[in-house]
Amino acid sequence: MLFNSYEFIFFFLPLTWVLWRFACNAHKTRLALSALTIASVSFYSYWNPPFVLLLIFSIVFNFAIGLLLSRNENSSVHYRRKFILFIGIVVNLLLIGYCKYFNFFMQNFYEFLGHTWNTRDIFLPLGISFFTFQQISWLVDSYKGIVKRSSNSIAEQFLEYTLFVSFFPQLIAGPIVHHGQIIPQFKNYRTFVMNWHNVAIGFSLFSLGLFKKVIIADTLSPWVADGFDNTDALTFVEAWAASLSYTFQIYFDFSGYSDMAMGLGKLFNIDIPMNFNSPYKSQSIIEFWRRWHMTLSQFLRDYVYIPLGGSKSGKVRRYANLLLTMLIGGLWHGAAWHFVFWGFLHGIYLCINHLWRKLNIALPKIIGWLITFTSVVFAWVFFRADSLERALTIVKGMCGFNGIVVPFRIALILEKIGISATPVAEMARRFHLNSFIWAPITFILLLIFVTSLKNSQEWVQDKMQRPVLWNSFAVSTVFVVAVGYLTRISEFLYFQF
Prior knowledge:
Number of domains: 2
Strand content: under 5%
Number of strands: 2
Largest sheet: 2 strands, parallel
Number of helices: 21
Order of helices and strands: HHHHHHHHHHHHHHHHEHEHHHH
Structural class: mainly alpha
Helix content: 55-70%
């Protein structure tokens, strides 16, 4: 069941909300949490019912391990707690490792030995990367004593923990929520009180996110496919058109999902952390990773980079830790070398960025933004391509090694200023455009949108301070227009990760 589907918008969501409000109005807080938990588990089972058993096993196992770690917090036998934590992390990694990486590792191992691996048909459970990382953080924090003990019964604690892991707005594609951000809200009486202001914010964010997904991201999808999903060597203009199309597609797709997740949380008075904060406004790669997939960046920092030693083990070790962390981040996104290389690229970017900061040489803001944006665009090619070979072919095209082919009229203009270019009259055909001129216009408008305007959270916070009829009309119009395009339903890009 997709957020951008009739089933979700007109059946699942209103039914779940009504049941939630009914229980809350009756002052049955545990019933309300139970209803929301059952709805969330049902939402997950809609995709593939057998895999709900994997989700339930993961929840039960990790809750039990976390409970053991908490009960043994004052144990004098230190190695016992370490062993319990080790078992918990290993089981989690084995689950995600088998489902997501088994074929990848076995294929590369067999190729190293000079043999061929017959790929097994292993179905990847949706959201396994997200709910696994959430629960690993729970285990580590339980070991460190960060998880606060509750006076509630074990059954009540388990209910809260289950909802923390399975809450449907963030279950499939994040954000990677922290237990300290979510579970305390289940204990706050205000969570169960009717709040029309939150409903207005939630509906606005959901509507804006839906619009971004179905109107912008899905419109760019065929442009991206025409550039990446064929074997042709793209020319300069074609390669840049394809790469920029994906740059904006993944932006609006992920931004749309993040807005919708936060909006859905608000409908239930639950604050889901921001995961996306105008990353294309960044003037450095360091800033980019503070704005893009913010919860993943925080997880990698707190549970990978810092445990590796962070920046406290010398300069060389610091950059090695940074590079290794980004390699793990790349591998987290997918079991393929082009994802690993994407992570490697961003690791190199970050190392260069930190080295440049050591020089204490300030760049003009526009130069910093241009370098950052161009670097991100080049890296996205490796993220989207289905192989390293295909990515390199497209990058060669972006650098002009496959020829600079432009529309006939542009070729005439270039010739007048002494630049020779090969004209092609049918350039627009590849990108489904009536006129090639619409491609640069589209990219310029989108670039202005992502770099100059307020993002959804900023807009909603600003407008909802003084609700007026015009704001309600604008949000309603956005929602109606978006719903009108639900006939071309497509999954969110981050579902595959």
